[in-house]
Amino acid sequence: MKDTEKTPALSVIDKIVNKLNHLDKIDKLLLQVINLLKYIFIITMILYLFICIMSLSHKIISLTISQGALDFQSIKTILIDGLFTLIVIAIVKTLFIKNGYDYAITFLEIGFVVVIRKLILLETIPEEAMMTLTLGFTSAVFFALIVYVHIVKKKALEQIA
Known about the structure:
Blueprint (H helix, E strand, L loop, with lengths): L1 H66 L4 H23 L5 H22 L7 H32 L1
Helix pairs in contact: 1-2, 2-3, 3-4
C-alpha cells in the first residue's frame, strides 16, 4: 500500500523534472538574447562616450577661443563635464570586466567620482555645510576603501608570484 502511494508521487516528480529539462532550450535561447542585448548596449554606450568626449573637446576649444584665459565658471563647467565623461568611461570599462572583484572595485571608483562631482556642484553656502561635510566624509571613506583594496590585491598577487 505504501509503494502504490509513492509511485504516483514519483511519477509526478518525474514529469516535473522532464518538463524542467525541456526548459534548458528556452534558457539557452534567452541567454543568447540577453547577450545580444548586452552587445547592443555596449555599442550604444561607446557611441555615447564618443559624443561625450567630442562635446567636452568642443566646449574646451570654444571657451578657450572666445575667452582666451578661462574664468573660474568656465573651468568649473569643463571640470564638471570632464568628471561626467570620466564616469561614462568607467561605466563602459565595467561592461568588459569579467572578474567580479575588479567589477566591484570599479564601481567603488565610479561612486567616488560621482561623490566628488556632487561636491564640486554644491554651492558653498552655510545651508549646505552639513551636506558638504557628509559628502566629504563619504568620499574620504570611498578613497580609503579603494586604496585598501588595491593594497590587498597587490599583496595577494605578490604571494601568488
